[in-house]
Amino acid sequence: MKAGSIILLLLIMLALPFLCYLNLHTNDGTRVEFVNASGVVTTIPVEVADTPEEQEKGLMYRTHMDDDEGMLFIFSEDATRHFWMKDTPIPLDMVFVNSDYRIVDINYNATPKSEDVYTSKAICRYVIEVNGGFCREHCIGVGDQAKIYRPFSF
């Protein structure tokens, strides 16, 4: 093996852990497709919150989120979910999705910075937060499907 090839291989090996770290801590290509009752598909990239720390923080302190993006909360088990808007300055729609990827509840236009607790009306595994008004604008409702696509990560 030539010296240049060995150096390139070493650089790649050194870069892999860093790239894996970035993949787990940024928008890693995960997306959600909402399929409404009319069959219309709306796709958005989502940031993933799958640790207790990420889930507790959520979108707190964010002053802006693009119209076509969101945050996906992934829980390890089905349960009734409780969310609030404390320290979240933008209105959000909270979409509650069960383990069969069906929307079981939606909290439309949650009030920014409110300490009111919103409890899902049914057990769910996932919660997707999008800008307030997104669900009505795209005719997304209870009973619709939410497909989650996550790229392979290390």
Task: Provide a descriptive summary of the structure in words.
21% of the residues lie in helices and 36% in strands. The relative contact order is 0.22. Strand 5 (92-97) and strand 6 (103-110) form a beta hairpin. Residues 16-26 have low confidence and may be disordered. A seven-stranded mixed β-sheet has the order 6-5-8-3-2-1-9. With 154 residues, it is of the alpha+beta class. The two termini are 28 Å apart.
Q: How is the main sheet built? A: 7 strands, mixed
Mean pLDDT: 88
Strand content: 35-45%
Which spans of ≥5 residues are poorly predicted at pLDDT below 50?
16-26
Q: Between the first and last Cα atoms, what is the distance in angstroms?
A: 28 Å
Q: SS-based structural class?
A: alpha+beta
Helix percentage: 10-25%
In terms of quaternary structure, what is this? Answer: single chain
Strand order of the largest sheet: 6-5-8-3-2-1-9
List keywords for this structure.
seven-stranded mixed sheet; 154 residues; 9 strands; 36% strand; alpha+beta
Secondary structure layout:
Layout: H1 3-25, E1 31-35, E2 41-49, H2 52-57, E3 70-79, E4 82-83, E5 92-97, E6 103-110, E7 118-119, E8 124-131, H3 134-137, E9 145-149
Parallel strand pairs: 2-3
Antiparallel strand pairs: 1-2, 1-9, 3-8, 4-7, 5-6, 5-8
Quick summary:
This protein is of the alpha+beta class and 154 residues long. Helices cover 21% and strands 36% of the residues. The chain contains 3 helices and 9 strands.
